[in-house]
Protein: nucleoside-diphosphate kinase
Amino acid sequence: MGEIIKPFQHKGFYLIATNHLFFANLVKEVQSGSVVVMDWEGLNGVNTGRVMLSDSYPVDSKPGTIHGFFCTQVGGNISHSKDFMESAKKEIGLWFQPEELVDYLELCSELDL
Structure:
């Protein structure tokens, strides 16, 4: 998990929420392990994040991307991203309550950073 998080941190993104979830009754792929959901915030986050992940098909994934490093077969997707901010906000609402999200600007202001 750390190897997937590290590139986003290096790119200057802020991890504003994360949850570790288990799904006992979903499709076989998801049942094979736990799922870590994350919400990242950063400049042009949706588009930049998709470039950092690369194509979902391992054969088409660019070297140096998360899928390029870790994906070996179709159907075992290691990560997921949204294509538009509107769809990202909708999905974030499925995984997180508003009080679970960190507001970095507010936090920095409170800490005088």
Notes: The chain has one domain: 2-98. The longest strand covers residues 14-21. Residues 5 and 65 are 12 Å apart (CA to CA). The mean pLDDT is 80.
